[in-house]
Design goal:
Helix content is about 50%, strand content about 15%. It has helices spanning about 5-10, 25-35, 40-50, 55-60, 70, 80-85, 115-125, 145-165, 185-205, 230-245, 265-275, 290-300, 305-325, 330-335; strands at about 15-20, 60-65, 75, 80, 90-95, 100, 110, 130-140, 170-175, 215, 255, 280-285. An eight-stranded parallel β-barrel has the order 1-2-5-8-9-10-11-12, surrounded by seven helices. It has a two-stranded antiparallel sheet with strand order 3-4. The chain is built from 14 helices and twelve strands. It is an alpha/beta fold. The chain has one domain (about 5-335): TIM Barrel. The protein binds 1,3-dihydroxyacetonephosphate. The site of 1,3-dihydroxyacetonephosphate has 10 residues, from helix 12.
Length: about 325
């Protein structure tokens, strides 16, 4: 059996990143309906299989995060996790059951899914998953995230991580500080740093092997309703400051979420981060929307245009991979 650190390195080294295709059926339905495609199980599978069988999977994608429905599906009698492994990537699975109202601070959310998790993880391991994902969400306002939300989400992330490592899988630890709001990038830095530090305090308390995790954070950005305009250089500096100050050195890798940035913004910002990264952390992408949006729009126009959709996905994956190596340019983006 590979060590957890070997699995991490297979997923995120050599310019590879993660395709987050783990939208719950509710979220995927919203995405499909936004492009006027019926959200049937067959359509969800066909779109996802189109991505999983694309050429750039081999060179640009080290891991794919799946949803419960997809990991159990087959395409032309082939199991989806086998299709992913045969294309050179490691199958992973989202195991949280979503963010629910946090009763002691009802304007915030707590992520659920710990009950029965040990048994579910065994089932996913047997289906081929070698890593898992759990996402905590935090909103920024004057009062939020509250200490209750910061503590309880960190605690849940640590208990999840312990169970995942016990099963022989790598936990992706995703504390997402949302970009909704009119806050400045400096506030995002302050609040994200507080959130990440608390996560590591709990992970260490729960004896997590830090060499066998991947951190999946947000970049440090001004809120999406803020008037502040900052450059990609400033975003990279703030993001690196946050991570260098808050993440223990044992952690091998950091894979950013795109969190509502456009495809090109998420690529450009990752590229600037990679160029400026002087630490030993491997830094890469774990994008959902920023890898899938254009491909989905193209597919929606003609559901049988598999080749055209793959071409668009291949380009996006290639751009993200170049960005993870600090080799992306505006020129190569347009070619
Ligand atoms: P986005 O890149 O669309 O933010 O999705 C990543 C993800 O996995 C969120 O949990």
């Amino acid at each position: 059996m590979s060590s957890l650190n070997d699995i991490v390195l297979k997923i995120i080294s050599s310019g590879k990143g993660i395709l987050a295709a783990d939208e719950s059926t509710g979220t995927m339905t919203k995405r499909l309906e936004s492009v006027k495609v019926e959200s049937s199980s067959k359509n969800r599978l066909t779109f996802r299989h189109t991505l999983f069988s694309s050429e750039k999977m081999r060179t640009c994608i080290g891991g794919v995060i799946l949803y419960d429905e997809t990991i159990k599906q087959e395409f032309n009698s082939k199991k989806i996790p086998d299709i992913i492994s045969n294309n050179g990537a490691i199958p992973g699975i989202k195991v949280d059951t979503g963010a629910k109202v946090l009763s002691s601070s009802p304007n915030e959310k707590i992520t659920e899914g710990l009950d029965g998790l040990r048994e579910r993880l065994k089932e996913y391991y047997n289906l081929g998953a070698r890593f898992a994902k759990w996402r905590g969400v935090y909103t920024i306002s004057e009062k939020f995230p509250s200490k209750i939300s910061i503590y309880s989400n960190a605690h849940a992330l640590a208990r999840y991580s312990a169970l995942v490592q016990e099963t022989g899988m790598v936990p992706i630890v995703e504390p997402e500080v949302l970009m909704d709001g009119d806050h400045s990038a400096d506030i995002c830095l302050k609040k994200t740093s507080e959130v990440i530090k608390k996560c590591f305090e709990e992970l260490i308390l729960h004896k997590i092997d830090l060499k066998g995790i991947i951190l999946k954070p947000n970049m440090i950005l001004p809120g999406n309703k803020s008037d502040e305009k900052i450059t990609s250089e400033e975003i990279a500096d703030l993001t690196l400051k946050c991570l260098n100050d808050s993440v223990p050195k044992e952690v091998p890798g950091i894979a950013f979420l795109s969190g509502g940035q456009s495809e090109v913004e998420a690529t450009k910002n990752l590229n600037t981060i990679s160029k400026k990264n002087k630490s030993d952390f491997l830094m890469t992408y774990s994008y959902g929307r920023a890898l899938q949006q254009s491909a989905l729009k193209n597919w929606a126009k003609n559901l049988s245009d598999i080749e055209g959709t793959q071409k668009i996905f291949n380009h996006r994956a290639k751009m993200c991979s170049l960005a993870a190596q600090g080799k992306w340019t505006e020129k190569v983006e347009k070619n």
